[in-house]
């Protein structure tokens, strides 16, 4: 590269970017929030999966989970879906749901989520039977 090529690169690097319109700037901020939310969704998915993996043997089968993180990380949540109403009642009676929530918080911290954000993690519980009763088994409608 010649000296002139280096000077051109430096000039381009030091030249401020063209200012964005208010709409483009708002879209850029929204895209950043959405990307941040997707990253935290993946982290919550990983943490809840690990909590389920290390669950005590008496933990009833967890069929599915609905999870996510709100924009701006106002809250992290997961709704664990047990197979039957009896399974969920057993888990609540034996405090396995409390164990699951606490273990998920620990897994969130282990994956790098700051503790003050992990403490906002909220868990809820439902059953596949309830989803079938209320929406005919349509998870999308049930969780919207």
How would you characterize the overall build of this protein?
- The protein is of the alpha+beta class and 144 residues long.
- It has a single domain, classed as 2-Layer Sandwich (GMP Synthetase, Chain A, domain 3).
- Helices cover 58% and strands 15% of the residues.
- It has seven helices and three strands; from the N terminus they run ααββαααβαα.
- The protein has helices spanning 3-14, 22-53, 85-93, 96-110, 115-118, 128-135, 139-142; strands spanning 62-69, 76-82, 122-127.
- Strands 1-2-3 form a three-stranded mixed sheet.
- The longest helix has 32 residues, at 22-53.
Structural class: alpha+beta
Give the H and E element order: HHEEHHHEHH
Mean pLDDT: 90
Query: Would you identify the CATH architecture?
Result: 2-Layer Sandwich
Number of strands: 3
Binned, the helix content reads: 55-70%
The separation of the N and C termini measures 57 Å
Low-confidence runs of at least 5 consecutive residues: none
Percentage of residues in DSSP E strands: 5-15%
Relevant terms:
single chain; 144 residues; alpha+beta; GMP Synthetase, Chain A, domain 3; three-stranded mixed β-sheet; 7 helices; elongated
